[in-house]
């Protein structure tokens, strides 16, 4: 890989040496390389997971599924919980705020043999979720958090399906919850925990505080996964070397760049990653991605859903603004292929785009919380799932 495709931050980071890192062990499930695709709403559906899987081994988690609609068998939720026939291992992220429905949802998933791994979301920072006590606000209520995790782990235990949890540092710098969340997860039998090293107030702003991942690793005996600011393959090596964590979770860094998993597989094998694809090669990946979506949900809905992916794929390329305007109007695969064919095929991937954030970059926020939550942190009363919906 040419030096121009390594940021200054990573230009001196060597690939892994033989035996330096071990597979991630989640119960009976072994993950190599120790890389997990983060669940992202509207993104990590089967077509995108399939595309990422094509580039490198690891674990690829579904977009978030809400417990109660799953228990009630609502068609849209069941559709989101679908996996491809060739998909293995099958990893699903579950969101729930009531131990009863979480337990029933896990029973259904493992009873039908649908999943090999369940991840639980306690990190959503969206205002309409936190103001009802859900998402990243839920770890404030430690007893309820414990009851939810216990219900999931016990329901998964007969099938030996590992359960993991993912959470943030806390609400803000005055209200950290990561130590409580990690300790409770370990106490209740989680196979691993994942820490997005930002607070809910940070949203996706600023730098992730990797040192907290290291502190959590020192605190717990179970595997700890680090999440935040994996933009290049070498970032994963730096995070694991600096923190001692057992694996990394990749989110926004792979948006419009599913080949990041190829690079991650390479560096964990002790190799230098390939150079990124040219614009023409990116166009070929775009067509493949859109085709997978069309086969999954139909051509019209697929092309509408693909528009934001088109923005991510072409971000940073010279003169791509006009192409993006055209991508926003395509309604068929033929039109998409025409726009792709019009791109400057041999234009190299712009080095300055390597670390350009994709996806959510909405600054910081003042986190909205339910009245009285800080005075009643031991309250175990379940939340109403219809109030605390998936906010993304």
Describe this structure in words.
With 392 residues, the chain is of the alpha/beta class. The chain folds into 2 domains: 13-274, Aldolase class I (TIM Barrel, Alpha-Beta Barrel); 279-353, Orthogonal Bundle (Non-ribosomal Peptide Synthetase Peptidyl Carrier Protein, Chain A). The chain is built from 14 helices and 13 strands. Helix 1 (46-55) packs across helix 11 and helix 11 runs antiparallel to helix 12 (299-314). It is globular, with a radius of gyration of 20 Å. 50% of the residues are buried. The mean pLDDT is 93.
Q: How does the SSE layout of this entry go?
A:
Elements: E1 24-26, E2 29-31, E3 35-37, H1 46-55, E4 59-60, E5 65-66, H2 67-71, H3 75-80, E6 91-95, H4 99-111, E7 117-122, H5 127-130, H6 142-156, E8 163-168, E9 170-172, E10 175-176, H7 178-187, E11 192-196, H8 210-219, E12 224-227, H9 233-243, E13 247-250, H10 260-268, H11 279-297, H12 299-314, H13 320-327, H14 333-341
Parallel strand pairs: 3-4, 3-13, 5-6, 6-7, 7-8, 8-11, 11-12, 12-13
Antiparallel strand pairs: 1-2, 9-10
